[in-house]
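User: Fold this; tokens only.

Assistant: Input:
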Amino acid sequence: MPAGSFFGLLGPNGAGKTTLIGAASGLVRVQARQLFVFGCDVASDLRARLLLGVAPQEIHLDRFLTAREVLVYHGRYFGLAKDDAGDRADELLAAFDLQAKAHTRPNRLSGGMRRRLLVARALVHRPQLLLLDEPTAGVDVELRHELWDYLRGLHTGGLTVLLTTHYMEEAESLCERVAFLGNGRVVAEGTPQELIHRFDADRLETAYLRATRA
């Protein structure tokens, strides 16, 4: 992935999307010198962890903390000063329209709100690479588009984004480049328009189906 890109990974369940994100974030063991984040070997260089923000597919949020405390705790874990972590938490609560739920525990939030809080948590420490594993699953259409707008703004500001999604519209709207995965391998890669043209399709979804079936 080129630095500064918005890159999409598309593939059926079991193709390897979540495994790749787990490997990049240190949750899945890989051999040394196989996977790098901005030049840092994820298997041996802890700096790689500081460069990543991860919003996993499964929603894991501490149910004993409020939404604001979740963000502050994450910021402190990654080395932010107490006041900076609080300011950053308030900034993200506003950006994700969660201010009214700042003192609510995650288990009392709707599914869409928990999903937004998960993405906000990934951004607290201002990572250089944001890993999004199906970030809009369970989010209603209006909030999905609001999240898209926010992600576009982050990308315009220089953030590198890796997105996995089953929403072809999402990938076509957001991603500069897309890779189709099948059985752990890249079966096709290019811009959405290049892939549409390569597979003689009218849209990305059709190109995806033709590539993965082949």
